[in-house]
C-alpha cells in the first residue's frame, strides 16, 4: 500500500478516523429509525459483523425522537457502537428541536446539496454547525452527485462554457463535487468547528469517477476522507465495483473510513456490506478482521461437492465465532485456515495455513489429513469430518491465542 494521505484525526465516540488510525469500517441501517426495536436489532447485527460505526436516517420528528430510546436499549445490551445521524433537508430543525438526540449522536452527516437554497442554505448549514460546536460533535460533509448543489454546478458549467479551453462535462462535475465539499468544510471551520471535527465524502456511482474525485480531494485537503460508491448495486456487480474503486484508492493511501453500499439481495442480510468492506481491507493487507479461509475452487479431480459444503460451513462457523473471539483472543483475526479438495495442492496449502484440511479427490483414499502449523497431526474419516474439523479449529484458537484479559492486565 502507498504512503497514507496525511489527514486530520477525527474522534467519533471511541473510534478514531484519520491521522495514523486504521481504516474504519462503517455501515448504515435501512430500517425506519422511528421503529426502535427493528433499528436496535439491525444495529446489533451490523456491530456483530464488525461495523465500527453505524449510520441511521434521521428524517422525521418521529425518527429524531426515537434516538434516545435506541441508545438506551443498545446500552442495556452492552452495545456501544458510535451512531451517526444522517440528515437531509430538515436537519437544522431536528437538531435544534431534539436536544437529547443532538447530544447523543456521535456524528452528524450533512449533505450541502440538500440543506437549502440562497440565504436559507447558509442559515440552515450554520445552524447545524452551531449544534455540532455546542455538543462538540464531528460532522461528515457528504456530497452526492445525485443531489449536487445546483447553484454551484450551474455556475461552474456556465464558466466552463465561456472558457477558451472548456473542459468536459465530466471534469466539471468532478470539480463541482470537490468544490462543494471543500467549500462547505472550510465554511464550517470559519464558523468555529475544528478541522479535526470534519470528515469529507464525495459519493458517485461509477468507478473511474470515484477514483478521479478522491485523487483531487487528497491533493487539495487534509480533511479525513470517507470512501464508497453510492448506489454500488446488487450482488457481484456492487461488490466488484466497490472493491475495484476503493482498492485503487486505498492502495494509494487515500481513504480513512469506508462503506460498501450494496443493495441487499431479496433474501440477503444487511451485514453483507460490512463483510465485503472487511474483505476489501483484508485483501489489501490493510487490516485483518476475520480468519482467512483458503479454499479450493474445484476441478475435474474434485467431483464431490463436499469440499464446497465444508468450506461454506467453516466460513460461517468462523464468522459466528468471531463475534466473541475478537473480544476474547489477541490476534485471532489473523489466523489462516485452509479447506482443500484434492491431493494436488491440498497438502501444500494446508501446510501454509495455521490449520488446514486436505479432502480426498476423485479416486483418492477416503481420508482427510489435517495439518497444524505445517505439521500433520491427524487424519479425519467418516461422516463427522465437518464437526471434528470445527472442534479442532476451536481447540487451536484456545491453545494458540492469548486471552485479551491478559493483555489488558499487562498494560
TrEMBL record:
Residues 7-267 form the IspG TIM-barrel domain. One of its GO terms (molecular function) is 4 iron, 4 sulfur cluster binding. InterPro entries: Dihydropteroate_synth-like_sf, IspG_bac, IspG_bac-typ, IspG_C, IspG_TIM, NO2/SO3_Rdtase_4Fe4S_sf. Its EC number is 1.17.7.3. [4Fe-4S] cluster binds at residues 296, 299, 342, 349. Binds 1 [4Fe-4S] cluster. Keywords: 4Fe-4S, Iron, Iron-sulfur, Isoprene biosynthesis, Metal-binding, Oxidoreductase. It comes from the Bacteria. Gene3D superfamilies: Dihydropteroate synthase-like, Sulfite Reductase Hemoprotein, domain 1. GO terms for biological process: isopentenyl diphosphate biosynthetic process, methylerythritol 4-phosphate pathway; terpenoid biosynthetic process. The keyword Nucleotide-binding does not apply. Residues 292-395 form the IspG C-terminal domain. Its cofactor is [4Fe-4S] cluster. It catalyses: (2E)-4-hydroxy-3-methylbut-2-enyl diphosphate + oxidized [flavodoxin] + H2O + 2 H(+) = 2-C-methyl-D-erythritol 2,4-cyclic diphosphate + reduced [flavodoxin]. Pathway: Isoprenoid biosynthesis; isopentenyl diphosphate biosynthesis via DXP pathway; isopentenyl diphosphate from 1-deoxy-D-xylulose 5-phosphate: step 5/6. Belongs to the IspG family. Converts 2C-methyl-D-erythritol 2,4-cyclodiphosphate (ME-2,4cPP) into 1-hydroxy-2-methyl-2-(E)-butenyl 4-diphosphate. HAMAP family: IspG. This is 4-hydroxy-3-methylbut-2-en-1-yl diphosphate synthase (flavodoxin). The gene is ispG.
Amino acid at each position: 500500500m502507498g504512503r497514507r494521505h496525511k489527514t486530520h484525526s477525527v474522534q467519533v465516540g471511541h473510534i478514531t478516523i484519520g491521522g495514523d488510525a486504521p481504516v474504519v469500517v462503517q455501515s448504515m441501517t435501512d430500517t425506519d429509525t422511528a421503529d426502535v426495536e427493528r433499528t436496535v436489532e439491525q444495529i446489533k447485527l451490523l456491530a456483530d459483523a464488525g461495523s465500527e460505526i453505524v449510520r441511521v436516517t434521521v428524517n422525521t420528528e418521529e425518527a429524531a425522537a426515537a434516538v434516545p430510546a435506541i441508545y438506551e436499549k443498545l446500552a442495556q445490551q452492552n452495545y456501544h457502537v458510535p451512531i451517526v445521524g444522517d440528515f437531509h433537508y430538515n436537519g437544522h430543525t431536528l437538531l435544534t428541536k431534539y436536544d437529547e438526540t443532538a447530544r447523543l449522536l456521535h456524528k452528524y452527516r450533512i449533505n450541502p446539496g440538500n440543506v437549502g437554497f440562497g440565504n436559507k442554505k447558509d442559515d440552515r448549514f450554520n445552524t447545524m454547525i452551531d449544534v455540532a460546536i455546542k455538543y462538540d460533535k464531528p460532522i461528515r460533509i457528504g456530497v452526492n452527485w445525485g443531489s449536487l448543489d445546483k447553484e454551484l454546478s450551474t455556475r461552474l458549467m456556465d464558466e466552463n462554457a465561456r472558457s477558451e479551453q472548456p473542459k468536459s462535462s465530466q471534469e466539471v462535475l468532478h470539480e463541482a463535487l470537490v468544490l462543494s465539499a471543500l467549500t462547505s468544510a472550510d465554511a464550517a471551520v470559519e464558523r468555529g468547528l475544528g478541522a479535526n471535527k470534519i470528515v469529507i465524502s464525495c459519493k458517485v456511482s461509477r468507478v473511474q469517477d470515484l477514483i478521479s474525485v478522491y485523487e483531487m480531494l487528497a491533493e487539495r485537503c487534509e480533511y479525513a476522507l470517507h470512501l464508497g460508491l453510492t448506489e454500488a448495486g446488487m450482488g457481484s456487480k456492487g461488490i466488484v465495483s466497490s472493491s475495484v474503486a476503493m482498492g485503487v484508492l486505498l492502495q494509494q493511501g487515500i481513504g480513512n473510513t469506508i462503506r460498501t453500499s450494496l443493495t441487499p439481495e431479496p433474501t440477503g442480510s444487511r451485514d453483507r456490506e460490512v463483510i465485503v468492506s472487511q474483505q476489501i481491507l483484508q485483501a489489501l493487507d490493510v487490516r485483518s478482521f476475520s480468519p482467512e479461509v483458503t479454499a479450493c475452487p474445484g476441478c475435474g479431480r474434485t467431483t464431490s461437492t463436499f469440499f464446497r459444503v465444508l468450506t461454506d460451513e467453516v466460513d460461517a462457523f468462523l464468522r459466528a465465532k468471531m463475534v466473541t473471539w475478537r473480544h476474547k483472543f489477541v490476534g485471532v483475526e489473523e489466523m489462516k485456515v485452509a479447506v482443500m479438495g484434492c491431493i494436488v495442492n491440498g497438502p501444500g496449502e494446508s501446510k501454509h495455513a495455521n490449520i488446514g484440511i486436505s479432502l480426498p479427490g476423485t479416486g483418492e483414499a477416503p481420508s482427510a489429513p489435517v495439518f497444524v502449523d505445517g505439521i500433520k497431526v491427524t487424519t479425519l474419516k467418516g461422516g463427522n469430518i465437518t464437526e471434528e474439523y470445527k472442534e479442532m479449529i476451536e481447540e487451536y484458537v484456545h491453545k494458540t491465542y492469548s486471552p485479551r484479559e491478559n493483555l489488558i492486565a499487562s498494560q
